[in-house]
């Protein structure tokens, strides 16, 4: 199948791009995609989860990855961390009137200096002070990096609402947004339903917001992201399978980590990097269902969801969501889908 970026385009009214979270995490809407489309509330999710199902969450924590500073010339710079490379180096995007060259020194937050070591594709390779921990500096002096389609600066409320309630391992520059709908009450309700919960970590990079710049998708190369699959999660997935339960990926980041770790044929515990690009025709080995938000037009995440549930199914679901005024993107509503070769058994 020859696919182009145009196959994943759609028109979205700007008024549907959620600019702030709702007052309650679980107050969002839920589009259930099965034999028919069902308009529900996120609070209804436990009704679509069966005993012995396993929900797999991404426990990454968003860094204060946006830093402001100046070049030696006095020109302003904005640095958006892509990912740390150890304790004192990182890849980053830099916005400036003129991009800094190798050897340039940037003064960030009027507190510390970083040196530009060179370029790594679209990113800059930066060296942070050797006498301080990079993550500690970023957390102290940086700002929370809201996505580019949220047209406002981060507010105090975003410090908690742009993190999941189970965020543990710092390393992302964007939230795993499907998880933002969950509060402790919802986690307890799912456990009360007889479902099990498991965890993995995938650190989301700034590349997740970069547009696909090729027409023919066979030419696209994905950004790479770090992930960790604990042995306990592999064991929980095996137990769910043995008891007839489904594996439900909470978000595309959980899906990417699971499927990347199963490319050898069976799911393997451990850590690594993945540049996996999931398009229609991809063979899914782990996930049976997916909870996700609505994604940008022409994005690799929309391509992943289309590969999972079917292009026509996703096209119809998005058309319905737009006509029904669902809220889109990070602070928007959610959808629950099963794999294209399966159907929901619950009545929608």
Q: What is the secondary structure topology, with strand pairs?
A:
Layout (H helix, E strand, L loop, with lengths): L28 E5 L3 E5 L12 E5 L1 E3 L3 E6 L4 E9 L4 E8 L8 E4 L3 E9 L2 E5 L6 H8 L16 H4 L7 E4 L11 H9 L3 E7 L22 E5 L1 H12 L4 E4 L1 H10 L8 E5 L14 E5 L6 H10 L1 H13 L10 E5 L10
Parallel strand pairs: 1-17, 3-12, 3-14, 4-11, 14-16
Antiparallel strand pairs: 1-2, 5-6, 5-8, 6-7, 7-10, 8-9, 9-10, 12-13, 13-15, 16-17
Task: Characterise this structure.
There is one protein chain. By secondary structure, the chain is of the alpha/beta class. It has 2 domains: 5-62 and 157-338, 3-Layer(aba) Sandwich (QueA-like), CATH 3.40.1780; 66-141, Thrombin, subunit H, CATH 2.40.10.240. It contains 7 helices and 17 strands. The protein has helices at residues 134-141, 158-161, 184-192, 231-242, 252-261, 300-309, 311-323, and strands at 29-33, 37-41, 54-58, 60-62, 66-71, 76-84, 89-96, 105-108, 112-120, 123-127, 169-172, 196-202, 225-229, 247-250, 270-274, 289-293, 334-338. The strands form 3 sheets. The chain has a 9-stranded mixed sheet with strand order 2-1-17-16-14-3-12-13-15. A 6-stranded antiparallel beta barrel has the order 5-6-7-10-9-8. The longest helix is centred in the C-terminal third of the chain and has 13 residues, at 311-323. The radius of gyration is 20 Å and the shape is globular. The two termini are 32 Å apart.
Summing up helix and strand content along with how strands pair, one would put the structural category as: alpha/beta
- The CATH class of the largest domain is Alpha Beta
- The helix/strand order is EEEEEEEEEEHHEHEEHEHEEHHE
Strand order of the largest sheet: 2-1-17-16-14-3-12-13-15
How can the largest sheet be summarized?
9 strands, mixed
CATH fold label of the largest domain: QueA-like
Number of folding domains?
2
């Amino acid at each position: 199948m020859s696919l182009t970026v145009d196959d994943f385009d759609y028109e979205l009214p700007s008024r549907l791009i959620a600019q702030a979270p709702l007052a309650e995490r679980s107050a969002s809407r839920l589009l259930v995609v099965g034999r028919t489309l069902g308009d529900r509330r996120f609070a209804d999710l436990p009704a679509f989860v069966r005993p012995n199902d396993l929900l797999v969450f991404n426990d990454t924590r968003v860094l204060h990855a946006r830093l402001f500073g100046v070049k030696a010339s006095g020109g302003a710079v904005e640095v958006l961390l892509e990912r740390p490379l150890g304790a004192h180096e990182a890849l980053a995007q830099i916005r400036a009137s003129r991009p800094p060259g190798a050897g340039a020194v940037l003064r960030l937050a009027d507190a510390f200096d970083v040196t530009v070591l060179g370029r790594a594709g679209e990113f800059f390779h930066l060296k942070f002070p050797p006498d301080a921990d990079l993550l500690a500096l970023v957390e102290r002096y940086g700002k929370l990096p809201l996505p580019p389609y949220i047209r406002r600066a981060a507010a105090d409320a975003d410090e908690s609402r742009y993190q999941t309630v189970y965020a543990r391992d710092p390393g992302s520059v964007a939230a795993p947004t499907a998880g933002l709908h969950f509060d402790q009450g919802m986690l307890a309700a799912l456990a009360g339903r007889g479902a099990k919960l498991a965890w993995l970590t995938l650190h989301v990079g700034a590349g997740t917001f970069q547009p696909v710049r090729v027409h023919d998708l066979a030419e696209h190369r994905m950004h790479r992201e770090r992930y960790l699959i604990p042995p306990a999660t592999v064991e929980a997935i095996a137990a769910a399978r043995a008891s007839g339960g489904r594996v439900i990926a909470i978000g595309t980041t959980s899906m990417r980590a699971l499927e990347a770790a199963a490319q050898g044929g069976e799911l393997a515990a451990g850590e690594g990097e993945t540049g996996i690009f999931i398009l229609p025709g991809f063979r899914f080995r782990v996930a049976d269902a997916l909870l996700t938000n609505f994604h940008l037009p022409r994005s690799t995440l929309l391509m992943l969801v289309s590969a999972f549930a079917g292009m026509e199914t996703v096209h119809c679901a998005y058309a319905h969501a737009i006509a029904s005024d669902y809220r889109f993107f990070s602070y928007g509503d959610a959808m629950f889908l099963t794999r294209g070769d399966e159907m929901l058994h619950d009545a929608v």
